[in-house]
Amino acid sequence: MTGTVRWGVLATGGIAAAFTADLLRMPDAEVVAVASRSAASAKAFAERFGIPRAYGDWASLAADEDVDVVYVATPHAAHRAAAGLCLEAGRAVLCEKPFTLNAREAAELAGIARERGVFLMEAMWMYCSPVIRRLVELVRDGAIGEVRSVHADFGIAGPFEAVHRLRDPAAGGGALLDLGVYPVSFAQLLLGEPDRVQADALLSPEGVDLNTGVLLGWDSGATALLSCSIESDTPLTASVSGTAGRVEFPRGFFNPEGFVLHRAGRGPEEFTVPGPRDSFQHEAAEVMRCLRAGRTESPVVPLDGTLAVMRTLDAVRDRIGVRYPAEVTPV
């Protein structure tokens, strides 16, 4: 593939709008179609962003031969169905995080993509951030020695009413999948899949997690202490400590402006990367780079890494006792 990459957007909510706005600022990207379960919603979104085609169903977008890649921005309980439909039709897919409700669904999507040789990537924009990529380089080059601990949190104040999506079990509600996916992904980016998972949580009357703490352990001796909440405004910071130094991120570690490296015998070293911070363009650029190179997976956001994170999220939910209606087999 060369030249302009033609995008389709599946869903019309806030994150779809933000992503589309960023795409329209990229000279090598074009948004050619949008789909929603509501024809009126799709039409309004198309008019807002100057998109030529609007579909009132997902299948029409999946079948559109003029679409090179579909951005799936539905709530995550619908990711398996929406992304699967597009992959089955041969469309490349960028699927919002959390990738799916559980590891089983994630493995199904990865299986479809690999069987058909179609590109698939989780929209984990944190991994595509130039700042985070610089952190990975430093850690891999031994700047802080052997990693021994990771700390990260993501909490928002709330309160959310029982009818809100974040408290709806049918929508995959709770703090873990919406917010905890960031601390878990951050830790596993640096340490890989953990060997042990411990967790505790406060659950809502509906059965979703409101406040969750996670302790991950690796046979190397490394640990990660992570938390997420939809009841409290946490610091939103992260740190990585090793045998020869540590890295500290200020508030907003998942979308950072920079970080500070501390090493014995040296003053603090500040690392920043020029360019937009609040931008989806980094992940869109990675998708387009892969498509032009003929790749079906991204080395920056690999499917195996996404599957590993989903397995950890499943393990946490198992420990805290959260199951969603779609996962319960009728008696």
Distance between the termini: 49 Å
Number of H/I helices:
10
Could you name the ranges where pLDDT drops below 50 across 5 or more consecutive residues? none
The beta-strand count equals 14
Strand-residue fraction? 15-25%
Shape: globular
**Helical proportion, percent range:** 25-40%
Order of strands across the biggest sheet? 8-9-10-7-11-12-13-14
Mean pLDDT across residues = 96
In N-to-C order, the SSE pattern is EHEHEHEHEHEHHEHEEEEEEEHH
Radius of gyration: 20 Å
User: Could you say which structural class the secondary elements and strand pairing correspond to?
Assistant: alpha/beta
Largest sheet: 8 strands, mixed
Write a structural description.
The chain is built from ten helices and 14 strands. With 331 residues, it is α/β, with parallel strands linked by helices. A hairpin with a 5-residue loop joins strand 9 and strand 10. The radius of gyration is 20 Å and the shape is globular.
Structural key phrases:
331 residues, alpha/beta, 6-stranded parallel beta sheet, 10 helices
Q: What's this entry about, in short?
A:
This protein is α/β, with parallel strands linked by helices and 331 residues long.
List the helices and strands and how they pair.
Elements lengths: L4 E6 L3 H10 L5 E7 L3 H11 L3 E3 L2 H5 L6 E4 L6 H10 L3 E5 L6 H14 L3 E4 L1 H4 L1 H11 L6 E9 L19 H17 L4 E8 L5 E9 L5 E7 L8 E5 L2 E5 L8 E6 L5 E4 L8 H12 L10 H18 L11
Parallel strand pairs: 1-2, 1-4, 2-3, 4-5, 5-6, 7-10
Antiparallel strand pairs: 7-11, 8-9, 9-10, 11-12, 12-13, 13-14
